[in-house]
Design brief:
The chain has 785 residues and is mostly helical. It is built from 33 helices and 15 strands. A ten-stranded parallel beta sheet has the order 3-4-5-9-10-11-12-13-14-15. Strands 6-7-8 form a three-stranded antiparallel beta sheet, with helices on one face. Strand 13 (307-309), helix 11 (318-327) and strand 14 form a beta-alpha-beta unit.
């Protein structure tokens, strides 16, 4: 069943606003760090939430974390800085003065604090060492010699070593410790196991060769996660006198959770011989039958166990799974992903039993939830999910949320991003996206763009992301960084020529460019490679004489890129775009959609006085003039022909061709515009009316004025609430009033000016101004040619 996307609470919204307003709320200290100007004494829970929000929003760094130096205003108890780029010094000053109960410093940004440095900082506050109950240093290399002469960690760093007294053994209140992926050694494990209250320990993927130290905490240890301990295979050689893995684990009688999963299930180069861990797994699953041969709770190995994870252990069979589940009625979780034993029928008969496996969607979803930190299992679960969703017909927000969580956890993992991006496409394809929450789709697009940035040379990742992005609904209705998306898709387009994907990429670019701000469009237009690449697409399609969506989208993208951008216009001319467009105009004389886009771009060029000399080609003007006067051509094409000619003929001092041609243009403009009936739909939209100001001067010929007045009447008759404020602010209304009152203005121009002023004035009192239509043309249209 599809799960709703959680709605942000008022508290979340407020905290997010504070996070993004820190620069305005703070002053800078002498060292550049931030300090709140007014620091109210926040409840402990709120302070914890603020630090957590800063971390997940990506705003935590040495400068911002400094606001927590004020331990009176911010009384932290649960500090979450996972993945944050925080240096040892900033961490020590900001967090260590607090009486923390929990600290998650997992996977701090590379190049910042190490596990040893985090621990050394903790030990500087005696109160903290007696209050800290939960600590996660997962993903941080410990980087010390755990037991030096003073029994303290010696941090390996450039310069003199840093020694502290006690190390882990000083954290006497510690109950939960996560040291996964820290390179934990046997000596460090021995010190950890001396903690008197230790209940939960994660030593996954550590360098330990013996589990014997665990016997030191067997009276308190309730949860042990020992995923991927590959060094244990060498135990008989390295430490032959030490207790073996089976004898150690079986004596941890208080264990309620045990994770012995293996991450090498997919590796072809790993031998399949049995290890001591496999022996423990087998004995656990088979159980210890009594004399009658039936399972007996008191005779079981690890009788308190309610959660067992053996995912990746190929030796597991349905027979032993069946025996294990039947013997333990209190079991709540069993990890069986990539074992071959998850299809056992007994697993579905227990309502409260959670299972990870590959037998059904429920098991796969459980795997995605539980293994988002484990790259190997996450990848396996994503592959299974993709196979389940290839032909999906029902929107599944819950599945998309799980996929995105995995992508966030492993942003640099190619195998995760590759399959996850394919899953995003299958979950949002066709009409599925429209039934999903916009905020969730925005998060999905953000992750796709991050994947494209992380793996720019991987063809399949780029293809998956482009396929997922190629959706009218997503491109038009969802909020995301369209400028970045345009740049990324353009980068892909410049190095690939697959016809199908080329069509999608050009379509995406066309839609995105139309939605960009003027500043963003101008910035894109300064990149000559973008103009050259799109012109290459136009030339490629025109050379074979086809009229398809790829050609139309490329023309639309160029039209929008050159709108109000002198740099883009210059690049267009420099790349021989003008010559190409003249050929396209002549070759596609019977294709209104092509002619409209070509003439629309020529309008943009004609608005730039600096390019007028390049456009002074008599053959070009004669052709456009013939289009303007041809009654067989639709108004949607003749309108842009008129705009091109009106702009060029409005500057008599820059005119270099025959005077007769100039007069003919003015006459034809007047005659043609007067024949146009009011358009049934808006043919174009405008971001600003600056190019119209010269055309509306009282000194201009009537034909030029008439075209401009008709254009203004056109857009106002369809969307006056949107355009009226623009006309007022940009001075167009004043020019229309001047035309309407000037005695030398032609009666036809005066009539149109008055009609437009009436439309503007009738809506002056409107209280709401809805947004105007998308700029120019921004729809992917039909998928076919």
């Amino acid at each position: 069943m599809d799960a709703p996307v959680p709605v942000m609470s008022l508290c979340d919204l407020c905290l997010s606003r504070v996070c993004w307003s820190l620069e305005q709320l703070c002053d800078s200290r002498a060292d550049g760090s931030l300090r709140l100007r007014r620091a109210p004494s926040l409840p402990t829970e709120t302070a914890d939430q603020l630090l957590h929000k800063m971390t997940v929003e990506g705003l935590l760094n040495d400068r911002t974390v400094a606001i927590f130096r004020d331990s009176k205003a911010f009384r932290l108890r649960r500090a979450f800085i996972r993945g944050g780029p925080v240096s040892p010094g900033a961490y020590r000053l900001a967090l260590c003065p607090h009486r923390l109960q929990e600290l998650d410093a997992s996977r701090l940004a590379e190049g910042h604090a190490s596990g040893a440095e985090v621990l050394a900082a903790l030990l500087t506050n005696p109160e903290l060492t007696s209050s800290l109950q939960r600590l996660s240093l997962a993903g941080l290399q410990l980087g010390w010699d755990p037991l030096g002469p003073d029994r303290g960690p010696s941090v390996r760093a450039a310069g003199p070593s840093v020694r502290t007294v006690g190390g882990f053994s000083s954290l006497r209140a510690l109950r939960t410790l996560n040291l996964a992926d820290t390179g934990l050694t046997d000596a460090a494990l021995e010190e950890v196991c001396s903690l008197p209250l230790l209940e939960s320990l994660d030593l996954s993927r550590g360098a330990v060769t013996s589990l014997a130290p665990l016997l030191g905490c067997r009276a308190t240890l309730r949860s042990l996660t020992a995923h991927g301990l590959h060094g244990l295979r060498r135990l008989p050689v390295v430490m032959p006198a030490a207790p073996g893995v089976p004898s150690v684990l079986i004596r941890l009688s208080q264990l309620r959770h045990l994770d012995l999963s293996d991450d090498r299930f997919a590796a072809n180069d790993v031998p399949c011989d049995s290890s001591e861990v496999d022996e423990v797994v087998q004995r656990l699953l088979e159980g210890a039958p009594d004399e009658e041969g039936a399972p007996d709770e008191e005779g079981l190995i690890l009788p308190a166990l309610v959660s067992l994870d053996v995912s990746g252990r190929k030796a597991v069979t349905e027979r032993v799974v069946r025996a294990f589940v039947k013997a333990r009625p209190s079991l709540v979780f069993l990890g069986l992903l990539a074992t071959g034993g998850s299809a056992c029928e007994v697993l579905t008969s227990r309502e409260n039993l959670k299972v990870t496996g590959d037998a059904n969607e429920t098991q796969v979803c459980e795997a995605l939830r539980r293994y988002k930190e484990r790259e190997c299992f996450l990848h396996e679960a994503l592959v299974l999910l993709y196979n389940l969703t290839v032909d999906l017909s029902t929107p599944r927000q819950d599945l998309l949320q799980l996929v995105l969580a995995g992508m966030r956890s492993h942003p640099t993992s190619l195998q995760v991003q590759l399959v996850a991006s394919a899953c995003v496409f299958s979950l949002t394809t066709q009409d599925l996206a429209e039934a999903m929450a916009p905020r969730l789709l925005a998060a999905a697009v953000d992750q796709l763009l991050l994947s494209m940035q992380s793996f720019p040379s991987h063809a399949q990742v780029q293809k998956n992301c482009i396929l997922a992005l190629c959706s009218d609904y997503i491109l038009l209705e969802i909020s995301f960084n369209r400028y970045l998306a345009t740049k990324l898709v353009m980068t892909w387009l410049s190095s690939h020529d697959d016809p199908t994907l080329q069509k999608m990429a050009v379509a995406i670019i066309s839609v995105l460019v139309a939605k960009l701000s003027t500043e963003e469009t101008t910035q894109l237009g300064t990149d000559v490679s973008i103009i050259r690449q799109l012109l290459g697409v136009v030339q490629q399609r025109a050379s074979v004489g086809v009229v398809d969506n790829t050609l139309r989208f490329a023309l639309s993208a160029l039209w929008n890129l050159t709108d109000g951008s002198p740099a883009a216009g210059r690049h267009f001319v420099q790349c021989q775009g003008l010559e190409l467009y003249v050929e396209v105009l002549e070759s596609y004389c019977s294709e209104p959609s092509v002619q409209q886009k070509v003439l629309g771009l020529l309008n943009n060029l004609a608005e730039l006085e600096e390019l007028q000399g390049d456009l002074m080609e008599e053959d070009l003007l004669d052709y456009v003039l013939s289009v303007l006067g041809d009654p067989r051509v639709g108004v949607e094409v003749r309108y842009f022909a008129g705009g091109f000619l009106a702009q060029l003929s409005s500057r008599p001092k820059a005119w270099t061709l025959r005077q007769e041609l100039l007069e003919t243009i003015h006459q034809q403009l007047h005659l043609t515009v007067m024949t146009w009936s009011p358009a049934e739909k808006e043919m174009v939209s405008y971001r600003c009316f600056t190019p119209f100001l010269p055309l509306l001067q009282t000194s201009q010929p009537a034909g030029v004025q008439l075209w401009a007045a008709w254009a203004l009447h056109l857009v106002c008759s369809h969307n006056a609430p949107h355009y009226s404020p623009m006309l007022q602010q940009e001075g167009v209304v004043l020019l229309l009033e001047a035309l309407a009152l000037h005695p030398g203005t032609h009666a036809d121009v005066q009539a149109l000016a008055r009609l437009t002023l009436h439309l503007v004035g009738a809506r002056q009192q409107a209280q709401m101004t809805p947004p105007g239509p998308p700029h120019k043309e921004c729809s992917l249209g039909p998928s076919g040619d």
